[in-house]
Design a protein that fits this description.
With about 375 residues, this protein is an all-alpha fold. The chain is built from 19 helices and 2 strands. A two-stranded antiparallel ribbon has the order 1-2. Helix 5 runs antiparallel to helix 6. The N and C termini lie far apart (about 90 Å). The N terminus is likely disordered.
Length: about 375
């Protein structure tokens, strides 16, 4: 029986070797080797380095064949080698100057390298080739924003939305521009349009595998949350930051945003006499729990300890506050706000000498900055 299995294994191994040999043997079409097909065969056999060699050889033999360029460009973009992707796009464009996808891929590669001017040139070329293609305008809007050309970005975004009312990326660009201009009402309106458009697309999808969430999904929720906070809509801000903290529980900054918003809201409510002292303390304890969650994820961020110290001080837990602010100062001895807070904590603890010393040092740091 063992000999029989050994015989079968030998036959199977021979078959595999024969198959590889067939794939490795150059195919010919009209007495010419088809290096692209060889590259495809090598790729299917997981011989990636060999495949790349064949694709390059295919370009050398026939520079007009777009297929090997497409394979190489996609490969280098996939592995984040954007410089190589740009090189192959440029070579392909020389033979295919009307191929808008080449400009799109090169533009995206330039964008990833933060070469926004060259990216914008490529997106403008797409618009020239396809004036009714919304993505050309949408991508141009993105890089125009990064180039601090807000009006240009809005113009491109508006054109993209005119061509495709479901272009979530363009709504997000507009939200960013208006937020930077402190026009929070318009920022909020466009952030809502972004999120609503994404939700609509997700709900209307018939296949879960077709659902692709945008890379800026968490960013737009954060922007909306901060915008709500600027507008004094703290409850809505807390909802957005809670959503982010639950969805991205490994990201400490969302817990900090949530905690600081709860702290601000509690302070506003207390000052307006909308809540009593007990309710205020309960809200602050909830905020402290959120900061503690952030610290568990990142114990090296001094601003987190500063935030918790401030909240503990507000609850008259000045011993605990002192421990946290000392930790923050050990990590960063150059932030004047840390000494200002510690001065207040020392004063609350009755150590007026230490309080005065910290306040004087705080003033010296402020004077240095001026």
């Amino acid at each position: 029986m063992k000999r029989f299995y050994l015989y079968l294994f030998a036959i199977s191994l021979l078959g595999i070797c024969f198959a590889v040999a067939v794939h490795s043997k150059p195919k010919k079409a009209n007495n010419k080797v088809d290096y692209f097909e060889l590259g495809e065969a090598a790729w299917d056999n997981f011989q990636f380095e060999l495949a790349l060699e064949y694709y390059n050889k295919a370009i050398e033999v026939n520079p007009a064949d777009i297929r090997p360029y497409e394979k190489l460009i996609s490969f280098y973009i996939t592995i984040d080698n954007y410089s190589e992707a740009i090189d192959y796009c440029t070579k392909a464009i020389k033979c295919h100057p009307e191929n808008d996808m080449l400009y799109l891929q090169r533009g995206e590669s330039y964008k990833m390298l933060e070469d926004f001017k060259n990216a914008l040139n490529d997106y403008r070329q797409i618009i020239k080739l396809k004036p009714d293609y919304y993505l050309g305008y949408s991508t141009a809007a993105v890089v125009s924003y990064f180039l601090d050309e807000g009006d240009v970005a809005i113009n491109y975004a508006d054109k993209a939305i005119e061509l495709n009312p479901d272009d979530e990326q363009s709504y997000y660009v507009k939200a960013c521009v208006y937020f930077d201009r402190f026009d929070f009402e318009l920022a909020l309106g466009n952030a809502n349009l972004t999120i609503n458009t994404i939700n609509k697309r997700v709900f209307e999808a018939t296949d879960e595998n077709d659902i692709k969430l945008p890379s800026f999904l968490y960013d737009v929720y954060e922007l909306r949350g901060v915008t709500y906070r600027y507008l004094g809509q703290f409850e809505n801000a807390i909802k957005d930051f809670t959503f982010l903290a639950e969805l991205q529980s490994h990201e400490p900054n969302y817990f900090i945003l949530l905690a600081n918003t709860k702290f601000m809201y509690a302070t506003v409510l207390l000052n307006d006499s909308s809540i009593d002292q007990q309710e205020y303390e309960e809200m602050l304890l909830s905020a402290i729990n959120d900061v503690s969650a952030a610290i568990e994820l990142d114990e090296e961020n001094p601003s987190f300890f500063f935030s918790r110290a401030l909240m503990k001080h507000s609850l008259n837990d000045n011993v605990g506050a002192l421990v946290d602010i000392n930790t923050a100062i050990r990590m960063n001895a150059d932030d004047p706000l840390y000494y200002s807070l510690r001065s207040e904590i020392y004063e609350a603890l009755g150590n007026n000498e230490a309080a005065e010393k910290d306040f004087e040092y705080y003033q010296s740091l402020i004077d240095e900055d001026e």
